TrEMBL record:
<keyword id="KW-1133">Transmembrane helix</keyword>
<feature type="transmembrane region" description="Helical">
    <location>
        <begin position="43"/>
        <end position="63"/>
    </location>
</feature>
<dbReference type="InterPro" id="IPR037185">
    <property type="entry name" value="EmrE-like"/>
</dbReference>
<feature type="transmembrane region" description="Helical">
    <location>
        <begin position="301"/>
        <end position="325"/>
    </location>
</feature>
<dbReference type="InterPro" id="IPR000620">
    <property type="entry name" value="EamA_dom"/>
</dbReference>
<feature type="signal peptide">
    <location>
        <begin position="1"/>
        <end position="27"/>
    </location>
</feature>
<protein>
    <recommendedName>
        <fullName>Solute carrier family 35 member F5</fullName>
    </recommendedName>
</protein>
<keyword id="KW-0732">Signal</keyword>
<feature type="transmembrane region" description="Helical">
    <location>
        <begin position="213"/>
        <end position="232"/>
    </location>
</feature>
<feature type="transmembrane region" description="Helical">
    <location>
        <begin position="366"/>
        <end position="386"/>
    </location>
</feature>
<comment type="similarity">
    <text>Belongs to the SLC35F solute transporter family.</text>
</comment>
<keyword id="KW-0812">Transmembrane</keyword>
<keyword id="KW-0472">Membrane</keyword>
<feature type="transmembrane region" description="Helical">
    <location>
        <begin position="392"/>
        <end position="413"/>
    </location>
</feature>
<feature type="domain" description="EamA">
    <location>
        <begin position="270"/>
        <end position="410"/>
    </location>
</feature>
<dbReference type="GO" id="GO:0016020">
    <property type="term" value="C:membrane"/>
</dbReference>
<feature type="transmembrane region" description="Helical">
    <location>
        <begin position="337"/>
        <end position="359"/>
    </location>
</feature>
Length: 458
């Protein structure tokens, strides 16, 4: 189990690092569309990108398990082992449909002379005695048969022991999977929160440089730490002093990097409020979703994002009317080049990256997923150094070090769920102080003169 958790944590960390690279490229492309292509339409861009999630729903045309959810009931439903009797604890999945069909009564077909003929060695006396003792049945018989789609027990009986264990494990995974309607309900609950978070990020990019936006978006780590302690999904989300210190170290690194960036100094960016709002919505989205869904095996993530795209397509279009007539964002149809850039950015920077990020969140923890956002800052600056040939001082590179350290420190603390080394260090320091104080008192008592005490009694 420990090796499995370590493998999940390593895989999730690598996935989040890949997502960071995609996000940096996407933010630079978004800034290019808004400023160089003169198409500063954050709501339009967010609507198009989010609607592209609907591409995942085409899986209903090709993926048979999704099609089966539309036409048939699930084969298995998960049973709470606590609510089951002790002798039934081994069977923690039950059939959602009856295994046997309804009784059918059919007439019995007798074959003439088949049961009456006997061998020539038997006497007539024995034949007559057998006929007297014979039992007479009804003229109909009851027939019940297994459904072709439900005959799983018959299949398990024919398998070897190891194969049957694997089959039962697959059955448990199927039973643990949320049904289509439940996935749609969860998508409906979180689609608005996700849309507002993405819209805030797009608004920030339209007013501020991508590097500054990514710096301010790192406040999501603090929001996640607070929200995860209030709404914990598992022991890995528990608030500890070590995690708090790691978040503080990450924020210190953000401040150092921001001071190193010449564009951040001496003014308050106009998109700062939007960046902080986006960080809050992203943190709320990932913490509450992780609390709603225990693990990645329960939620079919492509189906979830497909429904998110569908609900945003249906419910968010009135925003165009409101923004157009209030002149906050006048509607404008993009050119062919702008459409191409928007679709490419949405396909890679949203459709692909979001499902990878959510997968990485389930493999690690909500705090690690949000702290990974802070790594987009040095990656963005590295992008500027190698592609835009911008020089940055040594202070920038010193600031990236605590950000990387805090990210991997939280990953390590999440692996050891109940480990809080900072708190243990504080406790040991307090105990040492108490012991030294006690030793000092004992030494003082031993050196105290007893002559004055004895003189009082003489």
């Amino acid at each position: 189990m420990a090796k499995l958790n370590a493998h999940r944590l390593l895989c999730g960390t690598l996935v989040l690092l890949i997502v960071d690279v995609i996000w940096v490229a996407s933010s630079e492309l978004t800034e290019y569309i808004f400023k160089d292509e003169n198409f500063s339409k954050p709501f339009f861009s967010t609507y198009v990108k989010t609607t592209m999630f609907i591409l995942y729903l085409f899986g209903f045309l090709f993926w048979k398990p999704w099609q089966n959810q539309c036409s048939t009931k699930p084969k298995y439903t998960l049973v709470d082992p606590v609510a089951v009797e002790p002798e039934e604890n081994d069977n923690i999945y039950v059939e959602a449909e009856p295994l046997l069909s309804e009784s059918i009564w059919i007439p019995i077909k007798y074959h003439d002379g088949s049961g009456e003929k006997s061998s020539g060695n038997e006497s007539d006396d024995s034949i007559s005695r057998q006929s007297i003792k014979s039992v007479h049945f009804n003229q109909v018989t009851e027939v019940r048969h297994l459904s072709e789609s439900q005959a799983d027990d018959a299949l398990l009986a024919r398998l070897s022991y190891s194969a049957s264990l694997r089959a039962k494990e697959n059955a448990l995974k199927t039973a643990n999977k949320l049904p289509m309607l439940q996935v749609a309900k969860i998508a409906l609950l979180f689609c608005v929160m996700w849309f507002l978070g993405n819209l805030s990020y797009q608004e920030a990019l339209s007013n501020t440089e991508a590097g500054v936006v990514n710096i301010l978006s790192c406040s999501s780590g603090l929001f996640t730490l607070i929200l995860a302690s209030v709404f914990p999904a598992n022991n890995g989300d528990r608030f500890t002093l070590s995690k708090f210190l790691a978040v503080v170290v990450s924020i210190v690194g953000v401040i150092i990097v921001s001071n190193a960036d010449k564009g951040v100094q001496n003014y308050f960016p106009p998109g700062a409020v939007w960046s902080i709002l986006g960080a809050f919505f992203y943190a709320s989205y990932v913490v509450l979703l992780r609390r709603k869904v225990d693990n990645e095996g329960m939620l079919d993530m492509p189906m979830f994002f497909g429904f998110v795209g569908l609900f945003n397509l249906v419910f968010m279009w009135p925003g165009f009317v409101f923004l157009h007539y209030t002149k906050i964002e006048e509607f404008q149809w993009p050119s062919q080049t702008q459409w191409l850039l928007l679709l490419c950015n949405g396909l890679v920077g949203t459709v692909l990256s979001e499902i990878l990020w959510l997968w990485g969140c389930f493999l690690t923890s909500s705090l690690i997923a949000t702290l990974s956002v802070s790594l987009t800052i040095p990656l963005t600056i590295f992008f500027d150094i190698f592609l835009k040939k911008i020089d940055y001082p040594l202070q920038f590179f010193l600031g990236t070090l605590p950000m990387f350290v805090s990210f991997f420190a939280v990953a390590l603390l999440t692996h050891y769920e109940n480990w809080d080394p900072v708190l243990l260090g504080v406790k040991r320091l307090v105990n040492l102080c108490r012991k030294s104080h006690k030793v000092h008192d004992i030494d003082y008592e031993q050196t105290e003169s007893l002559i004055s005490v004895n003189s009082e009694y003489t």
